[in-house]
Design goal:
binds zinc ion; flat; single chain; three-stranded antiparallel beta sheet; Arc Repressor Mutant, subunit A; alpha+beta
């Protein structure tokens, strides 16, 4: 862990108590979190960072590849922890904003196939943005119940 914080420090991210709280919050989440959701969770632990500070921290963490930043069609950036995990895709509910990480194995094999397909044609992928959106179980039920 000390080595990890040293690497972060080299990138201008300091092991403050708030940074640790951000990492813990992301670690315990089943899905990627927006800045507002992270602020809400931090508030429960008596941290009150302003949005700009939090955004800067998360951007640095994303540059250090500690955190994955994803943009969805609601134009909300969501963040998740990458430690010990490869970049992956997500599912977000367009109705309630519920978000979950998709299993790495599935993401990896499908990315691998697409990359091979493109490489076969001489193309090179530099940016990849694939996220899945729709209705979560709860919202889907709510919709069918209201019919
Ligand atoms: Zn939902
Ligand atoms: Zn994720």
């Amino acid at each position: 862990m000390r080595e990890f914080y040293k690497q972060l420090r080299d990138r201008g991210v300091y092991a403050t108590s708030i940074l640790k709280a951000i990492l813990r919050t992301l670690k315990s989440s089943k899905g990627p979190l927006s800045i507002n959701e992270i602020r809400f969770e931090l508030g429960k632990k008596n941290f009150q960072p302003n949005k700009t500070t939090l955004y800067r921290q998360l951007t640095k963490l994303a540059e250090a590849e500690v955190v994955q930043e994803s943009l969805f069609t609601d134009e909300i950036r969501r963040y998740c922890l990458l430690l010990g995990r490869k970049p992956h895709h997500h599912f977000v509910c367009q109705e309630c904003g519920y978000a979950e990480h998709l299993p790495e194995e599935i993401c990896n094999s499908f990315e691998h196939q697409i990359a091979r397909h493109l490489a076969g044609k001489g193309n090179e992928v530099t940016v990849q943005t694939i996220e899945f959106e729709g209705l979560c179980q709860k919202c889907k039920h709510k919709l069918t119940d209201s019919l």
